[in-house]
Write the structure tokens for this entry.
Amino acid sequence: MVPTLGEWILMLDSTSAVARKSLGHKTVAAAVADALRQRILSGDFAPGAQLRQDALAIEFGISRIPVREALLQLEASGLVKIVPHRGAVVSGLTLEEIEDIFQLRVQLEPTLLILSANHFTKSDYDELHALKDEYSLALQSGVVQKWGELNQRFHLGLLRHAGRPRSMGIIAGLLQDCDRPTRLQLSVSGDVARADAEHTKILQLCEAGEIVSAANLLRSHIEHAGHSLIEIYRKSIAA
């Protein structure tokens, strides 16, 4: 586990002056990078948000040097972009890309579910229920880092027997692109309970043989998430 910023500082305070000089900026920068990473992934910093070195240095009670090094680390991992005249900006998909992704998902996923659901076996349902329960637990306990991955696995699980490998490849890519935006949408909108309930209902409808109703709910489920995320992006841009 990565130590918190406070733990790093306590560790540095207990070392020699020579060690502090050689390790200080690197260890504090790592702690700052970890703290900022968690805030980006949880949606505290939305895509397009500017991360100002001076403000962060004041917030953490440190100099700007380790903050700058932390932002460079985040840039290397793709979470931040260093933009001329703006500095560090939280990276993410554009508004147009988000709209395109969700339009494609709305067009493809309900149709693939209709093709897939009639072929579900008891083993398939057992696995989908286990995924749904794992996702529910992650949502309720606030384990944000797992939300995108578990959402992706559940949606792909619903479509697995569609018999359309090219379409499935497209969907897999779209869901991967939605990983961080999904976490952002759930964190900011507070739609955790709704997402959980709709996943449960989609699965129940499939089990009851009401496949078209399940597909219709899947469509509205995706549309709502897309509209909510687009609104979040627009507010971020306006700010």
Summary: The chain has two domains: 5-90, 95-238.
